[in-house]
Amino acid sequence: MKVNKTMNLFTEQINSWQDWGQVFQSISAFTPLVRYIMQKENLSKAEIKNLTPGTNAVFRVGDYVIKIFAPKESGKDQTPDMKTEIFASKRANALGIAAPKVIADGFICDKYRFGYLITEYINGQEFLKADKEMTPDMKINAGQQLRQISDAMNTPCEPFNDIDIFSDEYVKSRFAEFPERFRKERLSYIKDHCYSTSVFVHGDLFGDNVIVFDNSELYIIDFADAVLAPVCYEYALVAIDFFRFDKHLMKGFFGDIGLDRLTEICFDGVLIHNFGDDVVNEHLGKPEEFKCLDDLRKRMYEKIQL
């Protein structure tokens, strides 16, 4: 990983996450830094454009995407996420998974120490927008294609970050807004349940992170939330947050799996997912509606059955 030293390219002040939030989409603020990085990597100049905002500064520069990660002064050092994304992206490239090719990565020591990642730009449409024009058959095909990608991606992998989704600290930090009985039952369930062997999972497969290229081919982007976890961790987010229980997408991805089995996959996965509580809150109901785990299981069953 390259480390280059420069000075006075980035002039904005970052002393908090709020400061970062006010500047991370600013083309004018990042233009000198972006141009310097592109030159250092021997990549051609091009107009700098905004892309869908996330956590870090992401811009399109001609045929490339450059992501500049928030420095530690923001209050949320993104270096671990950067290392995860670089590892996961290169792994996807090596496995032949449809994902943007990694072009370069490194650090720039300017006013702050910025990590960066450059990948090829996939000229397509975010799935969240593209699916509005899909026929039922197109959705089934898209679900099947995503399952093929997942099957290639959700395989055994060596450890690549320090995240242990079954550690006490990790498990107890989720679902804090839910009723006490629900939280206690969840902790007991996770402790006693026989989850499958952990594999590599993308961790954030939803409509913004899947690009539809040339009207049909799917590409996976943004691997920063990848972890080692049982495959239900991946499937639950796909069904609930990505597909939103769309019956055609679900049929393509899960095939003719039974309703009971599909409910259990979603149930098991959402309980351990990093975004599990947010996903439930957004797509299934408010925390106070779930007094116990059975309330959540029944709600999932009803949603899938529709």
Instruction: Tell me the radius of gyration.
Output: 20 Å
In helices, the fraction of residues equals 40-55%
Please report the total strand number as a whole number: 11
Give me the CATH superfamily of the largest domain.
Aminoglycoside phosphotransferase (APH), C-terminal lobe
Query: The CATH topology of the largest domain is what?
Result: Aminoglycoside 3'-phosphotransferase, Chain: A, domain 2
- Overall mean pLDDT score? 95
What is the CATH C-level name of the largest domain? Alpha Beta
Oligomer: single chain
The helix/strand series, from N terminus to C terminus, equals: EHHEEEHEEEHHHHEEEEHHHHH
Structural category: alpha+beta
Main β sheet profile: 6 strands, mixed
- Head-to-tail CA distance between termini: 49 Å
What is the domain total for the residues? 2
Unreliable runs: none
Q: Please report which band the strand proportion falls in: under 5%, 5-15%, 15-25%, 25-35%, 35-45% or over 45%.
A: 15-25%
- CATH architecture assignment of the largest domain: Alpha-Beta Complex
- The strands making up the biggest β-sheet line up spatially as 1-5-6-4-3-2
Helix tally?
Answer: 12
